Amino acid sequence: MAEITLVEAIRQAMDEELARDENVFIVGEDVGVRGGVFRATVGLYEKYGPARVIDSPLAELSIVGVGIGAALYGMRPVCEIQFADFIYPAMNQIVNEAAKMCYRSNGEWTVPIVIRAPYGGGIGGGLYHSQSLEAFFTHVPGLKVVIPSNPYDAKGLLKAAVRDPNPVLFFEPKKGYRLIRGDVPDGEYTTPIGPAKVSRPGRDLSIFAYGMMHYYALQAAEKLASEGIEAEVVDLRTLYPVDRKTILESVKRTGKALVVHEDNLTGGYGAEIAATIADEGFTDLDAPVRRLAGPDVPGVPFSHPFQDWFMVDAEKIVEAARKLAAY
Known about the structure:
Elements: E1 2-5, H1 6-20, E2 24-28, H2 44-48, E3 53-55, H3 60-72, E4 76-80, H4 91-98, H5 101-104, E5 114-119, H6 134-137, E6 144-146, H7 151-163, E7 168-173, E8 181-184, E9 197-200, E10 205-209, H8 212-226, E11 231-235, E12 238-240, H9 244-254, E13 257-264, H10 270-280, E14 290-294, H11 304-310, H12 314-325
Parallel strand pairs: 2-3, 2-4, 4-5, 5-7, 6-7, 10-11, 10-13, 13-14
Antiparallel strand pairs: 1-8, 6-12, 9-11
Helix pairs in contact: 1-7, 3-4, 8-12, 9-10
C-alpha cells in the first residue's frame, strides 16, 4: 500500500492501462507535452509517445468524435474534457451517437470510450470552471456515469471504465485532486462499476453522497458521532446505473435519509435518489427525505465568500443531519 492523492491514482490507472493494452490511447487538450492542466497525464507523453497521448485542438466535439470513431474500430480511447463545463459542444456526440450506438445496431457495435472530466467548484474557478453536470447524463440510457470519491476507487473504477465495452463518463472532483489522499495497493485491481458502498455504518440516519460531497460527509459523520448521532454514509460511486438495493437497505437500517450533492438543488441528481426512496422505501422512513445541495443560481461565484455560500461543506452537512436526526 502507498498513500497517494486522487489525481495520482487517476494517473496510475491510465499509465497501467496504456501499458496493458496497446489499443488504449489518451486524447484531449494539453494532455501531452504539458501533462494536463491538472497534471493528470504528466509523464505519459514521454513514456508512450505522441501517437498514444495526443494533444487535440480546442474542440470538444472533435475530441469525443475522434474517440467514438476509434472505439468503433477496436481502439479504447480515454478522452479528456479539460473542464466539465466545456462538455456541451460534445453533447450530440455523447448522447446521440455514443449512448445509442449499441442499441441502434442491435448489439453489433459497441463504443468502449471513457470521457474524463474534472467537475465541481471550490477552486475559485467561477462560472465556467466550476459546474457539476452529472444530472444531464444520468438521464441517458446507454451511458454509465461514475464519480469516485477516494484514490482507491478512482484508480479501480477508471481501470474498469477503460475495459468496459460501453461508454463511461468519468467525472472527477477537481477540488479533491490533491486534497483527498488514501491508500492504494501496488498490485492489479479494478473496482466494479455499479455497486455503491457503505463507507461508514450508522443507525440514526443515512447520508448519500458522491465525489467531494462524500469526503465532506465522512467529516460530518465524525463530528456528529461526537454529539451522539451515528450517521451511516453511503458512497454512491456509480450514478448510472444506480445501486437501488444498497440505498434502500441503508434506509431500512436507519429510517432517515439525507441526500447531498454539489449541483443546483432543482433537478439535481439527488432528486433521483430521493424519489427512489420515497417510491420504494416509504414504509421504512421515520422522517421526510431531505436534500442538501447548491442553491439555484446560474453558477458557482468567483468571489470566495460567495463561493463558500454556494458550496456544500462538512459543517452544512452536520447542520442538516442534526435537524433530520431530531425530527
